[in-house]
Amino acid sequence: MRHTSATKRRLLTMAGLGLTATLALTGCQVEQGAAVFVGDERIDEEVVDSYIDEHLQARGFDLAEQGHADFSEERQSLVAAVTWVELGRQMGLDSEGILTPAWSDPGTIEQLFTEESVYRGQIVSALLEDHIPDQITDEHLQSVQNDLTEHGLHGEINPEYQHLPLLVALSLASEDLSEQVGDYDIKINPRYGDVRLELLPEEILAESPELAGLYVLEF
Fold first, then answer.
1. Nearest in space to 216 (alpha carbons), one of 189, 195, 193, 202
2. Largest CA distance in the chain
3. Is the pTM of this model over 0.85?
């Protein structure tokens, strides 16, 4: 097993919370009963609701009494997941067949989040393929530093941070990313509020949870 030093895992010498940087995409009105459209593919609210029901049952909630409870964050997380999955499918990426190909038989919530993780990593890699720098320059460091400072993280950036090339690519490629994903004409039902697609992979967020929300696609 390869171990990564603490130095390379740490991005900033000092850090604070408050990250909200986004790569904005315009959300539009969608048809009644639809949760998400990715191109011509419609994912119904019933799909999201079925995942919510499974989630609540697993946590021991009484579904008959859930009407007054607020599960907006859970719904946003699920909508983001189905959006990532459908986007990955339309990009022709391989999820190892974790889910069935039709949303009429969507599988379990565990399968959904597993496939989301696989697709999200592949999608971000595909989108950033031409943006990962061969060598990190002072200008690259400053670009990431500006993003971090603007959104509430303070401290001197660590040039040995192992995921720095990815952060540099995301910092430099925001307009290109929005344009590429925009080509798939993603529409999310406004009832779900501000749904954001987190661009940083789970590996980085697990190591550095303070980076959550630093680079996202927002609808």
1. 195
2. 58
3. no
